[in-house]
Amino acid sequence: MTRTGPQTYVRWMIDGHDYFLACLKQVDDARLGGSSHLEGWTGKHLLSHVGHNARALARLAHWAATGEPTPMYPSPSARAQEIEAGARWETARLRDFVAEEQERLTTALGGLTAEHWQAPVVTAQGRTVPARTIPWLRSREVWVHAVDLPAGGDFADFPGDFLDALIEDALIRRRTAQSVAVAARATDRATEPGVGEGMCVEGPAVDLARWLTRRVESPALRTASGGPLPELPPWL
């Protein structure tokens, strides 16, 4: 992804968390007990994941600050176990959990120096990345999962610069981790060149981001040949 300073990522993270909470306020407790827009997950599963994700990323911030290897999760199965356990909590506790863990993560990131931001850490997928990537990883979670809430948000609400970064990031993951040869060109952007390699899909940035991350097709998207859009596996 295009190199961006950690403070931009932190801004996106904080704004995304505020957006997530604003969307969450629109969903009552009863509805959180029902299905979310993620297959197999209730709204409570989603809240558990968002809270535990902040806790896991705070471990990476600790790693960057101290040099002590602190993985996001102690084992490959721990992430799923945490989500399932949290989904059984009272809804009020889950709402507080999301806010409290985000506050702890923000505080931990606020203590990192310029040197700490460059320290290598390892993601849950096994990728070694500089610590400045941590707030970007969190930004993706809070913005996109706000859309996954029952009666949640919309990609049209996302800041333009974040939306462009999200498209680029999704294309890189599709190509490198999933071997999907797809490119994209946002027709509502001033720059003409597309991003990525392979079959090029064109359309508004909002529709591209929604399709690349949530596989939701739009009549506004098209391929150069006029054929169907490429099939995509789950994003993350």
Number of distinct helices: 9
**Number of E-state strands:** 6
Give unreliable regions as ranges: none
Backbone CA Rg: 18 Å
By secondary-structure content and strand pairing, the structural class works out as alpha+beta
Helix-strand topology string: HHHHHHEEHHEEEHE
Order of strands, widest sheet: 4-3-5-6
Approximately how much beta-strand content do the residues carry?
5-15%
Report the helical percentage: 40-55%
Query: What form results from the Cα inertia axes?
Result: globular
Please give the structural blueprint:
Blueprint: H1 6-24, H2 29-32, H3 43-66, H4 78-86, H5 91-110, H6 114-117, E1 120-122, E2 128-130, H7 134-148, H8 160-176, E3 182-186, E4 195-196, E5 199-203, H9 205-214, E6 222-223
Parallel strand pairs: 3-5
Antiparallel strand pairs: 1-2, 3-4, 5-6
